[in-house]
Design brief:
The structure is a homodimer.
Chain A lengths: L1 E7 L12 H11 L3 E8 L3 H14 L2 E5 L10 H9 L3 E3 L1 H13 L13 E3 L3 E3 L8 E8 L2 E8 L3 H19 L4 E10 L3 H13 L4 E7 L4 E10 L2 H19 L3 E3 L5 H11 L4 E5 L5 H7 L8 E6 L3 H6 L5 H7 L4 H15 L3 E7 L14 E7 L4 E7 L4 H21 L1
Parallel strand pairs in A: 1-2, 1-3, 3-8, 13-14, 13-15
Antiparallel strand pairs in A: 4-5, 6-7, 7-8, 9-11, 9-12, 10-11, 15-16, 16-17
Chain lengths: 416, 416
């Protein structure tokens, strides 16, 4: 079974907007055993839309149209799909009433063009829209012309996702051959994508029944997406788990997530387990590390806070770094990184203290201390570990690399 | 003139990856007066690729293929486009030599499959790839079958962008009718998208020669993209500027950028102009404000640093908030926000101090202090301004709203 996903709307053909709904739909269709063969974006022109629908119906078993279901003249999806199928549109009185009630409940009068949203293609199931005004439609064709499933969904992501999950999935599960699919996502830290692929390739090639995709995440993160199908979920899960274990053996403690968790979630999880707390003093990352850690709900249990010490005076004032250390070794040095970690730990009274100092660029580099040079320190009161790295990329990527390195040091310390 | 952009690669039909090159190409094509009518994503299957090429050549004047130019068996773009056009592929000796030299310079031996990258469609210009191995191709057809431009580009964004700008743009400028296009992007702060549209609609509708697109940026930012075409660049610019001025009159000091600048760039610009400095004490935003400010290169001139005061003890320890104030009013209160701003300003010896405290959720809300409630304070040593807001959305959006509000307070103070 294969699918085509069609996004409709001239705004999706500008430089400012793009279809992202199709990623959600692709994940859901794959889980049902349906591969996506084509994705198409088309504007609000009748002729373009009809020809797109015609082409899609000829080459895909499942065709999903997204958008163009609203009340305006530009919303042509209903009409064009009906024309392509050679079917009629009928205005449903109940939907018109629902629309009127929806407007009335907000104290608005409904303009007549809104009634177009109640036009239903002959033979289609109406998909109720609990989060917006335009209903969707579900058409199952099974006749001498063949077998096809055609779905019309509204464009706004929260309307589309809810409608698909609540009303399309159950219908598709009934209509499509039953398959069981298991998936897992492993992540490794601080290894390059090509090196990760080189080491992983002999392993995943020995497991041809598992589909493996290797992707570079944010700097310092490589993802292994594993997916297997089988008659039973148990068998599919076993295939995925066997490969996952083999990859974990190869990458050992570089594997930080075995089910798609983020680095900051994992670090939070370990800190919580150990009832440990953390504080950070950041120079070149300028708050990015704290921002990542506090993006996790509940992080206040283990992250007390810290300082952004961009200016050298603040390295002393907020993190207690002796000014003489900065004068002697420079702000970007292993000595200052260690003093930041130790100072912020003492000041914040935490189990661990992190210090980061480096040169994010584009300016400020020298031959001795080039752009990309970063010192990361982790202090626990007994000893202080410092890692020096030279990261590639632009300002943003260097800062992301540095936060990942620092988080990975905390993770390794807590695991060890 | 219209275009179709085709992205090739089975990985672009998974839930994990999407084509983003087409946004860049759309912007460039629009500047040349070419509208994009269709975008298609197709996998690495020969039959699918040939049918996609056939359909595109029938409906578009300019067809751009991206990806599938590498050395592997899966890289079929050259062959399939040649087949569709009824032309031959010829292996170019000079390109083979260039490829060999490229490998040799890295001390590698080139495997034979790499030679496939030297296969050129009859009549095509070779587009040299300075950043990768696969060259592109540019074909201009002007015969009894009509007029068409066909471009083959490599998939990696940095290779594609450089090749298009350096080698395709000059060719297209020669082949396409000359047009002048002017564009501007205004941004307004802390106004909702629908309200912004309501106020702007009567104005931009009175300027039908300027194409206007309204987009919601990150929380607290709405963008007006203006674009006009005319015989002369002067005339196009005048049309855009006239509408921009009318919108600036309507939105007054809510307009923070008149040429697409980010809020953090604008705040940095104003601080630099006034030789003023800034420090921040953040609770619920957890470093996000500092991260935004320091994402701007050169921000060390005006941003000295600050504190992330997640834990209440740190609000006192790092930002000098009296513990009694927290006990009396709660950590999320206008009093504590003001004390954070004043305390961090004193501690960091800056012109301005910002304090942010609120409830980002999902937990921690109450009837009196719900999730989304945030207090923002700005202190300058003479007086302290506090703004209380209740933001919608999830944890991430609430934090983004709060940083935007705080930056906007600094901007308004510096303008006033």
């Amino acid at each position: 079974m294969n699918a085509e996903i069609i996004a409709i709307g001239s705004e999706l053909l500008t430089p400012h907007r793009m279809d992202t709904n199709s990623l959600f739909l692709t994940a859901k269709l794959n889980e049902l055993g349906v591969e996506v063969s084509f994705k198409t974006v088309v504007g609000d022109r009748r002729a373009d839309l009809v020809s797109t629908a015609r082409i899609a119906l000829a080459r895909a078993d499942v065709v999903i149209f997204m958008g163009g279901l609203g009340p305006t003249e530009d919303d042509l999806t209903r009409e064009c799909v009906a024309e392509t199928l050679g079917r009629k549109l009928q205005r449903h009185a109940r939907i018109v009433e629902d629309l009127r009630a929806r407007f009335a409940s907000r104290g608005w009068k409904m303009s007549e063009n809104n009634e177009r949203q109640a036009d239903v293609i002959t033979g289609a199931d109406v998909l109720e829209n609990k989060r917006g005004s335009a209903p969707g439609q579900f058409i199952h064709i099974n006749d001498e012309n063949g077998n096809a499933i055609i779905i019309l969904l509204p464009g706004p992501p929260h309307e589309l996702k809810a409608m698909f999950e609540e009303q399309c999935l159950p219908r598709l599960q009934t209509l499509l051959p039953r398959q069981s699919i298991a998936a897992r996502e492993l992540k490794v830290a601080m290894i390059g994508e090509s090196m990760a692929d080189k080491r992983a390739a002999p392993i995943y090639k020995a497991h041809p029944l598992v589909e493996t995709t290797i992707l570079a995440g944010s700097p310092g993160e490589v993802q292994f997406h594993l997916r297997a199908r089988a008659e039973s979920l148990e068998e599919a899960q076993k295939r995925v788990d066997t490969l996952a274990t083999a990859l974990e053996d190869e990458f050992d403690d570089a594997v930080f997530a075995s089910n798609g968790e983020s680095m900051e979630q994992i670090v939070g999880y370990y800190l919580g387990m150990r009832s440990a707390t953390l504080a950070a003093a950041e120079s070149c990352t300028g708050g990015m590390l704290a921002e990542r850690i506090t993006s996790v709900p509940g992080s206040s249990r283990y992250f007390l806070g810290g300082a952004v010490v961009y200016d050298n005076s603040l390295k002393s004032e907020l993190a207690g770094v002796p000014a003489i250390l900065i004068a002697e070794h420079g702000a970007v040095s292993s000595q200052v990184a260690a003093a930041l970690a130790e100072g912020i730990r003492t000041r914040c009274k935490t189990t661990f203290g992190i210090g980061i100092t480096g040169i994010a660029g584009p300016g400020g580099g020298s031959e001795e201390k080039p752009v990309g040079l970063v010192f990361h320190a982790l202090a626990n009161g007994k000893n202080t570990e410092v890692v020096e790295r030279k990261f590639p990329g632009d300002r943003d990527r260097i800062r992301q690399w540095a936060t990942q390195q620092a988080l990975d040091m905390v993770r390794r310390k807590l695991m060890g």
